[in-house]
Amino acid sequence: MKHIGAAELSSVIRAVSGRIGVESANLNRLDAALGDGDHGRAVGGAFAFAADEIGALPEPTIGDIWRTTAKALLNRMGGASGALFGVFFLRGVPLLRGEDALGKAEMGALLQSGLAGVKARGKANIGDKTMVDALEPAVAAFLEAEDFGSAWSGAALAARQGAASTRDLVARQGRAKYLGERGIGHIDPGATTVALIFEAIDEWWGMNAE
Ligand code: ADP
Ligand code: MG
Description:
Elements: E1 3-4, H1 6-22, H2 24-34, H3 39-55, H4 62-76, H5 79-90, E2 102-103, H6 104-122, H7 132-144, H8 148-165, H9 189-208
Antiparallel strand pairs: 1-2
């Protein structure tokens, strides 16, 4: 598949919501080690809400879906991650005005603008033990890939490796910062969520778009 339309995009968001829902207890556990233990509940609830809101839209455009997701995440997730995942989607909304299909180039631009938004808002860079450790390499892998399908596989792999890399880091942003060296040995929950998102999309692609 070279382009996805609104129906496919809603289905992708539903798939992402399903995967995060299944992993929600695990994400809470990761956050209990480094933060306050609410990350899975926060992201799980917010993505489920986004999927429901999208399902209730009559004939949405791609832009409607992206904006509805941004608002749902901003309003329902709360905490540090709510603002950051929310801004990720919000930054893409102006890029989608008038678009009725997304190709790899458009999706790459969306991911890039989202990453820039997350970094501007959160001030985290690679190595700070946050979601940026998964998101930045995932976006880079997506952009480097030749075609849409392999872009998701590459991004999923890079995100998972990036999330794994947070295990040995000392946090320089977010609640985990207060643990200092005691956070070493624990994988960042937000980076894990990013890996789950790209893995869910890659899997969706394998089943629906090849
Ligand atoms: P909170 O810490 O407010 O309880 P969550 O538990 O939902 O929020 O999310 C925690 C995740 O948010 C962390 O694992 C980390 O990936 C991400 N995070 C926190 N602060 C930042 C930041 N400044 N920049 C990027 N990501 C961050
Ligand atoms: Mg938390």
